[in-house]
């Protein structure tokens, strides 16, 4: 019989897997820089945005609060990010913060500078913008006024009806 895991162990396993995803992105960017490629950040952003859109298509048409619940489907993901809802979330507007970012922690482990981490954060957050921008949710928009990788204490996401 396989090992069973506590919720805390699962949170850490998922966190570590996501941290590796951040390191993977950092190594790609470093190698492209080392190879002399210039101006590729926008291309990476487009690819990551498309990935986010593709991921959320199966959710269909959603309001702000339901969309937030799809992005954060269970206690494992919420625990991994140290998720907190902000204020009263409704169909027209939902706001939440993450107090922990696996990508940022991975980049710090790699010894990346503030500028390098900020650049990678700007690339990686396109995933979230893509998720909100799927074709079924044309009346939703995402604002990310704060990001841990950008030097802020939290990642703040606001999903609202246009």
CATH class: Alpha Beta
Helix content: 40-55%
**What is the total domain count?**
1
State the shape.
globular
Q: Which stretches are low in confidence, meaning pLDDT under 50 for 5 or more residues running? A: none
Order of helices and strands: HHHHEEHHHEE
- First-last Cα distance: 51 Å
Task: Identify the CATH architecture.
Answer: 2-Layer Sandwich
Q: Would you tell me the structural class of the helices and strands?
A: alpha+beta
How many strands, what sense, and barrel or not for the largest sheet? Answer: 4 strands, antiparallel
List keywords for this structure.
single chain, 162 residues, alpha+beta, Muramoyl-pentapeptide Carboxypeptidase, domain 2, 4-stranded antiparallel beta sheet
In short:
It is built from 7 helices and 4 strands.
Produce the secondary structure layout.
Elements: H1 7-34, H2 41-56, H3 64-71, H4 75-81, E1 83-85, E2 93-98, H5 102-109, H6 114-124, H7 126-132, E3 140-146, E4 155-161
Antiparallel strand pairs: 1-2, 2-4, 3-4
Helix pairs in contact: 1-4, 1-5, 2-7
Describe it.
- The protein has 162 residues and is α+β, with helices and mostly antiparallel strands.
- The chain has a single domain, classed as Muramoyl-pentapeptide Carboxypeptidase, domain 2, CATH 3.30.1380.
- The protein contains seven helices and four strands.
- It has helices at 7-34, 41-56, 64-71, 75-81, 102-109, 114-124, 126-132, and strands at 83-85, 93-98, 140-146, 155-161.
- The protein has a four-stranded antiparallel β-sheet.
- It is globular, with a radius of gyration of 16 Å.
- The model has no long low-confidence stretch (mean pLDDT 92).
